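Deliverable D4.2, example record:
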Amino acid sequence: MTFELSDRVQAVPPSGIRRFFEIAEERDEVISLGVGEPDFSTPWAARDAAITSLEQGKTSYTANRGKRELREAISDYVADRFDLGYGADEEIIVTAGASEAVDLAFRALVDPGDTVAIAQPSYISYEPGVIFAGGEVLSVPTKKEDDFRLTVDALEAAGASEADLLVLCYPNNPTGAIMRESDLEPVAEFAREHDLTVLADEIYAELTYEGDHTSIATLPGMRERTVVFNGFSKAHAMTGLRLGYALGPADVIGAMNKIHQYTMLSAPTTAQHAALEALDSCDGDVREMVEQYDRRRQFVLSRFREIGMDVFEAKGAFYCFPEVPEGWTAEEFAEAVLREQGVAVVPGDVFGAGGEGHLRVSYATGLDDLRKALNRLEAFVEDHV
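Output generated by the structure prediction step:
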């Protein structure tokens, strides 16, 4: 029997990152700077809360939207940290990672044929998510000369005034770019003028260096047209526990919950107990991790400059985005470095328009491995450039 796969699934190519992981698995002693995952363990207090919940037999479903106690804690946390005001009853949903929240939003808001503008380069799952929901993707490339910030010029050049939704992610994966309030204001004005719904992925909000994160939802007239995504994977090092959340107007969160209750039922219960403890007592652990990421960021940027590779001044997340030397494509360079020196990085073009000629380098890896990896990169550049 031959299955007839759906056109939507066949329209999406395999992940461009996966091929590099498969090459890496063929080699010994590979240092991976390709994965967007903290090398820290989940703070002990959160792990202990998860263990205790299991010992107490708290293994049943929770409310579809997540434990009310956790939603209240999230409401307090985002108000305190990011000046965001959302009610626990109807404006917050807890999901199986921020990725599920983004997928729910696409399915709740995108009708077949709708156009979704995506600021790129960006997280690789947005584009497939739009296609799976039946929408059409409109790429909005950002540029190094704009510090990879989304600008009104870029939106107008891409034709985003005709779009139905706009997706942006700041601090950005893969560039490490951030947008200050003054950068977001003209984008917000554009969204209001052209009646765009905004999906703001702020999963790296805590990992903002040299200043505080500003959410576009805090700007005038934006709360009612924005869905904000966040979670516990990055700042709280809880990737494997799969817990995220979305904040938005009650009607949108209600629609997302309708899909969630028929598919996921509820986010993982054990992870919700861990997250509750993380918000209650792990601020110090988060601050310590952020300080270490910042030290690594400064080291990596400095080493790339010593090596002679141009690199954008990343100020958020845990990525930097160096340019490959002249005469190389990003894919050629990344594959050659992996095969010859055993260093795994990701070509920037797998993250969409604007990523060509760059590499995504994750510094969510210890300093010892970062030193070794950058020494190997330096040797490669000396041999080939």
